[in-house]
Structures
1.
Amino acid sequence: MTTPTTSAVLPPSPLVGEGLGERGSLDSGNTVAPHSTVPLSPTLPHEGGGGKGAVLSVRNLSVALPVGADRPFAADNISFDVKAGEILCLLGESGSGKSIISFAVMGLLPDNVRVSAGEIFLGDENLLTLSPAALRGKRGDDIAMVFQEPMTALNPVMTCGDQLDELLAEHTQLSAVERKAKTLAMFEAVKLPEPDRIFTSYPHQLSGGQRQRIMIAMALILEPKLLIADEPTTALDVTTQAEVLALIKTLQRERGTAVLFITHDMGVVAEIADRVVVLQNGKQVEAGSKDQVLRQPREAYTQMLIASVPGTEPPAEGIAHDGTALLSVVGLGKTYSSGGWFQKKRTTEAAKGVSFTLHPGETVGIVGESGSGKSTVARCITRLIDPTVGDMQLGSTRLDGVSRDSLKLARKRIQIIFQDPYRSLDPRQRVGEAIIEGPLNFGVSRTSAMARARELMNLVRLSPDVLSRYPNEFSGGQRQRISIARALALDPEVLICDEAVSALDVSVQAQVLKLLEEIQSQLNLAILFITHDLRVAAQICDRVLVMQRGEVVEQGTARDVFITPKHAYTQRLLASAPGRGFEFATQHIAVP
Amino acid sequence: MNAVFKHVLKNGAVRFGLIVLSVLVILAILAPVLGTVDPAWLDAINMNQKPMTTADWTGPDNKTAPYTFLMGTDSFGRDVYSRVIYGIRVSLVVGVTVAVVSLIFGTFLGLMAGYFRRVDAILMRVMDGMMAIPGILLAIALVAAWGAKLSTVIIAIAVPEIPRVTRLVRALVLSIREEPYIEAAISVGTPTWKILLKHVLPNSVAPMVVQGTYVCASAILLEAILSFLGLGLPSEIPTWGNIMAEARVVFSSAPHNMWFPGIFLAFTVLAVNMLGDGLRDTLDPKFNKRGQK
């Protein structure tokens, strides 16, 4: 609307030249001919219609939301091209309309949402004027899609081999033997180990990364012209993410596939994109090459987004926190056992031998991938679960092996903030009631608890007037602020943040981190910060513990761990952080 | 809460159910003034009259006056219209009471089983055992032991429903228990009973209300079946089931005796079920999309 549509089309610039060189060199070694016969020239002027050389050309696309939604258009006057052999990233925070655009291209919009204006060209054909049957033919053959959550996108009762076989049987004339050979070759191409075993495996028998490789194999086996990848690595661990990103990039270069890559993660954009379209609230904010958008952003929104990306290196030497530890954990372990009477007994060590100390005013980070045991440690300390072994001491109070009653007093001093802002507040409880619930449990009168709640709302930058509302009236970031207010209502000494900013958009994440840091300095809080996000940990933590498979493999000051990692796993983690080494435009905001 | 009501009332099925049920409730309450006569009074002269027949009717006070039998009379000369209208009372009382009783017990047991693992193991085996008792057999036993009374019928129908409600509530509690807001409540020191009352229960109310309507509908049907089988209330108290049971004998000559209570029964159950479906569509997030259309 406000952005001229031509901004999607790159003006010839020296920065794009680099991209051309890269693509040109790849073209020469290419066995698969690119679908477009037009030379891949970024200097080519784009006209209306198909946009020559573009596999996908979206022109002035508007997608209308049903009456009564928070805004009239999910996507408003969006225009961009994706050329063969190129990766275009649609970058936006939640609610930016980036997924709606991909659904519009696939012709999979929900019933109550419709395209109200514009054109979507695949080659020379306008997808919006095709019959449903013709569009179905396009999907799979010409356009394929990879989704965020591979477990739900694969059919759980079919073997992986059968799922690809079905696709080939439907779309090609190949014989059963040829189909199997092609499927196995594809499994090999996506670097799945033991293709024969994978062929007969069900999705639940594979890891998340392997499942996503199956999805990619399914998407690419019919050699589509266009691949739409909707947050394909968001649900994956950082090391797996790095592998999958590299795989998508390699396959796409080899096959000359055009990729429309949807993501909220600036690091991923830095890693994979050729060109970027930035979206905000359904509007196109800025478009250009990766280098131009990420290094010389023109629009204020893009600049703000990029400034919100935490850097991978700790900003400065943290203050050393000596003296008596507030919280000390020695040899903490948690073993789960299953089975028993009828099954073979199996034990899983979720955490073992975890030891660390936490001082007032200090932030200690626990980083690790899913299943590393970092959340188990947090839940043991808060005694939401009972540790199997280990000593935990808060000041002079023991936390382990004590009765529930004495635990109640200790609980008051340790508060926890959870990851999912949509599930950590009771949907049937007014936020004011949620905040005063703790103080009421400890005998504070209702009036003074409410007065304190109003103060806390000011502290977390929310209006005290909204205390009588229900959680569904708030955004994710606001809910997380309410969760912080609830935790602070008991005047805790230790605050545990269990992935507390991981579900938030990057700009909101920066605000919440800033808020936490301010509160910490005001109240001299000790913070145990649990995260999988190395960038966040690098910015906020004084000391860091790296966990892998339940054990602490490395611990030290943030600078030591992030700049000179000693353990191989830490090194691998750091090397996998997307966009590492990419110089973003402006100075990173200094969070601590 | 007001907004929830408005949202629910937008649903057509809910409106239909509520309108039909309100009409039935009004009919049941106003039964004595709707031109009815004593539903249990036998008048040997007017046996098996066809609907809309006008004839002289002698009442309990020995006065004789012309009376129009809207739905005819049965083989004992009782007015079917009066019996059907009074029968609404029994059906509604049984349906609502059974729903309330089984919801109260089922919710309590379900909360216990869902939240406390140790209780769960024992309680659910007891519930499994209860579900293995055939409902009709239980009714025969109870009627034999305590006599054919309204309370006996209610207990006979409610007892087999309790395990079903318990299972539903337990399943709800099992999933709610894992929500982070429950862990948040634990970590601010909220005692367990308060967590159950203030967090778990309010979040399981919507599916329970829906289940309540299904229990109500099946209780109305079951009561009719029990009465039809002669295991329910004695025929001095008119119920749709025992009207139909008596009509069965003369079905070929006087089918109206069967039709009228049958139609009322079908409409009542339909209305309750539609109310339940509508509530599920509007209250259950999984069906919300359909409900909004």
2.
Amino acid sequence: MKLIAKKDVAAVVGTWSKTYSVLSPCMHASGDCVFDSFDAETFTLEYRKPPMPPKSSFLPQNETMFSVENGTFTPVIHHEKTLLFGIRACDLMGILQARSFYSRDMDDVYHRSHAEDTLIVVHACSWPQNETCFCTTVHSGPYAHEGFDIQLFDMGTDFLAEAGSDAGRAMIATEPFRDFDVEDAAERLSRVKHMAHNSIPIVSEVAEAMDILKGTGTNEGVWEHLGRKCITCGGCVYVCPTCTCFNVVDRVTADASGERMRTWDTCLYAGFTREASGHNPRSSQASRLRRRHEHKLLHYSQTDNRGALCGCVGCGRCSDYCPVHIGTLEVVKAIAEHIY
Amino acid sequence: MGEHAQNIYTLRPVTISRTLPQIADHRLFQLRLDNGCSWDEFGHQPGQFIEASIFGKGEAPISISSPPTRCDTLEICVRRAGKLTNALFEMGKGSRLHIRGPYGRGFPVDKLKGHKLLLVAGGLGLAPLRSLLLYVLDRRKEFDELILMYGTNNPDNVLFKYELLSFFDRDDIKYLYSVDRDDAGIWKQYVGVVTGLFDRTSLSPADTYAVLCGPPVMYRFVVDRLLKLGFAKDHIYMSLERMMKCGVGKCGHCAIGDKYCCTDGPVFNLTEVEHIKEAI
């Protein structure tokens, strides 16, 4: 294990940005913190939960799959050495789950190439980022167990740096990283982890809702009620680290030429399942909302959850941003409490 | 680079070698590979589907209507319904399009071998089921008794008319055809819904596999009827239709409960899907 003084971090990330396309927390003049290309001026370590998870590094909102010229399709596989600096453990879990899903049975070469090109530095949480965090409930945080190259733990004026890969080990081998060879290093780290873990409240309704869905199933009335509230904006999907559905569209620039792309899509939209005949197996908003939540809480493949409880990583963003207050936290409460 | 070979979305160009009008807005397209290659190496099985692709119109899942026993051509029977199929109907012999596949889990041919078969098709459901029907007819000795039930809404909408008529000359297939309505009074066979055909033949549920393909409403009634007759749930197979965008289990459009219609299906037996509320 290594230590690095917080004041030295910006310079190190700046060095890395010469080799990698670094996405790191930037404090905008508006006061919003977003993950953006590294910029020494706006780089910050004082940030809360960024509005967007880093999923677009692996599944861009629009991604060209083929360039098409005179009807001939040529695959476009994007390669860019990327470093995600400072993402949270819940968001890493989202990346890992998506990676398992996209690689199972038949590997998706576009997703794989992004994964192979990306190094990940996790900034473990010492406390909840806001009141909607529930990573400890779904076992996705506050710190990561696998999948990172480096993980940083806040030790006051320093970060403790843990390497999770050979690449990570090499990156923290030199100055300004220094050895952390005090006798009680492991104990100190475990104390930090323990305190962080205990600072994030458990949302018991998640497991209760999962049990209800697994057992007799929830009352139809819950979905009817939530379906009536949903305004089908798709915002929850947009900010969700594990929502990875896509649509395929053609952008035609000239006759028989252009690009075939994939774009984010969502099961909340009526057109998502509508067939060319007009038949729609999921014809109500209630059934579509139910699908989205049952996918994560009931149907998520055991092979894809990477040690987490389900297909929700507990980042809480859907509850932060849903305009009508039916994020996952509200949905599991409605199911668990049999309100409707 | 090797990446191209590993890209699950890789398309291959094909040429329309023939188009055969079926009924209004339904057409059979025969496809051939470049350089006169046989479809053998495509490796398709009865009940599988392809993604047909026309740049600018996107991709659409289309079931394969021809069996792997007839590899000189690949046939797809298409209803003019959406963006891609409308564009396809504007294309004639010699036109080029792209396909991906074959995809999905087809009919369990090996399991069906040696058994009696009841094939039940409704409307365009005959298109995918025909790949199994012709497969069985081409390898007739490998299967026991074969019964085909086919229902359409009226006599004008019978697909593969000449093939169905040709069965009149065979004694190794029992066929029962129905139409929901016959306003012109020209239909010589049963008038009524396809389940009515069950009263006109005797079945031996214990050693028969039922294979269904048709509109969702047909499944509910036919499955109900089969269960009452004593068919075991794992002897009832059906091909489910969903909007299968990618065909490889990634895009999420065709998910049914914990299953993906494109990779776990499109053919399922009743045991696999009866617990999923939205399946049928």
